[in-house]
């Protein structure tokens, strides 16, 4: 009976996720200015905040049935959806306050917003008077944010039956919200690749750029890599966390504890100088009762809030454009790329070139990893 029930629960979980992933980006050429100064970063940021606020407001007008239909689900967890919406509004308000600081330099999208209520009101009527210079951006931006919001609300609607990065399970988990304004952390998952692959090229590129990031490695892939030769040089100057022994959900896997132990031991043995005590759960899925074990291993869950979606059909440039749009929206956060795939490096190259003069900063991996 227990086996049958477990199988049924698994099938229901799969059914809830049956709809295909919606990979969505935004063509940054539709924005008429380069983000090549701190003030112009703020202009674009204010615009994205208000555009997203508009679709967030629109989603609150949907009743439960309409929301269920829109997200393509049989049922939704309204409590989590409302909590995620509330947290999004709080982040938008904090972000807009930061973005307003340069209004004396450039007043575009600077409105008399002095409270959360003002922001909600302004967002609800946004796009009525943006001017002809920005008119070609308005509707494509609205479409992008509508699809991006659906992506996030769908994860919220399934939580905690299907856990994801959209919500924390406890205050001990990390995400990008604790960073300072304009600060971003680079993280990479799914590696390492075999020698000479995209993991090597990306790590070397970061060293040339005098940047660092956290590479969340899979234990079995690191084992295969070390069996073929030394691995110490691969992640020199970078940080290494763990993603488990295999790339599979750690929420229902009976061997999840052993997965963490084995991968942690492998990294600590092979890469002691690069190791940081962080676990990036594949698909963002982890157990609600796993905090005690995590503490015993001196590990913390490290989530992300800006997903490049470079593991799908988006081109490298489209993936980077998605990341930049979300950087403008949230103004801080943890970015996730896949170093196991070749698109990550050209996407990162485009992103660095496009933000070189924007006044943003890159969080040090060591400082973040041991904080």
Automatic annotation (TrEMBL):
The keyword Hydrolase applies. Residues 1-18 form the signal peptide. It comes from the Bacteria. Its EC number is 3.-.-.-. CDD domains: CE4_NodB_like_6s_7s. Keywords: Hydrolase, Signal. InterPro entries: Glyco_hydro/deAcase_b/a-brl, NODB_dom, Polysacc_deacetylase_ArnD. It is an enzyme of class 3 (hydrolase). Residues 178-287 form the NodB homology domain. GO terms for molecular function: hydrolase activity. The keyword Nucleotide-binding does not apply. Transmembrane segments: none annotated. PANTHER family: 4-DEOXY-4-FORMAMIDO-L-ARABINOSE-PHOSPHOUNDECAPRENOL DEFORMYLASE ARND-RELATED, GLYCOSYL TRANSFERASE-RELATED. This is Polysaccharide deacetylase family protein. It comes from Pseudomonas farsensis.
């Amino acid at each position: 009976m227990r086996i049958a029930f477990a199988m049924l629960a698994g099938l229901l979980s799969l059914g809830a996720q049956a709809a295909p992933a919606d990979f969505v980006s935004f063509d940054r050429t539709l924005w008429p200015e380069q983000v090549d100064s701190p003030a112009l970063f703020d202009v674009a940021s204010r615009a994205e905040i208000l555009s997203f606020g508009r679709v967030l407001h629109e989603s609150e007008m949907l009743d439960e049935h309409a929301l269920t239909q829109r997200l393509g689900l049989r049922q939704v967890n309204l409590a989590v959806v409302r909590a995620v919406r509330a947290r999004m509004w709080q982040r938008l308000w904090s972000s807009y306050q930061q973005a307003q600081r340069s209004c004396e330099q450039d007043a575009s999208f600077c409105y008399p917003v002095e409270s959360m209520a003002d922001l909600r009101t302004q967002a609800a009527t946004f796009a009525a008077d943006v001017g002809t210079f920005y008119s070609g951006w308005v509707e494509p931006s609205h479409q992008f944010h509508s699809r991006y919001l659906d992506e996030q609300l769908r994860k919220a609607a399934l939580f905690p039956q299907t856990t994801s990065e959209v919500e924390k399970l406890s205050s001990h988990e990390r995400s990008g919200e604790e960073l300072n304004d304009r600060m971003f952390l680079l993280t990479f998952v799914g590696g390492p690749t075999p020698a000479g692959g995209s993991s090597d090229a990306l790590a070397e590129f970061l060293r040339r750029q005098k940047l660092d990031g956290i590479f969340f490695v899979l234990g079995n892939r690191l084992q295969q890599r070390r069996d073929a030769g030394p691995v110490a040089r691969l992640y020199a100057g970078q940080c290494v966390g763990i993603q488990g022994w295999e790339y599979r959900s750690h929420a229902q896997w009976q061997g999840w504890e052993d997965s963490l132990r084995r991968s942690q031991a492998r990294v600590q043995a092979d890469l002691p100088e690069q190791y940081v005590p962080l676990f990036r759960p594949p698909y963002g899925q982890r157990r609600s009762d796993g905090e005690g074990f995590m503490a015993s291993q001196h590990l913390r869950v490290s989530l992300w809030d800006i997903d490049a979606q470079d593991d799908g059909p988006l081109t490298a440039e489209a993936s980077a454009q998605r990341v930049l749009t979300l950087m403008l929206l949230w103004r801080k956060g943890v970015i996730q790329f896949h170093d196991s795939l070749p698109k990550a490096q050209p996407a990162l190259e485009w992103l660095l070139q496009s933000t070189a003069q924007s006044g943003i900063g890159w969080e040090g991996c060591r400082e973040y990893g041991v904080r």
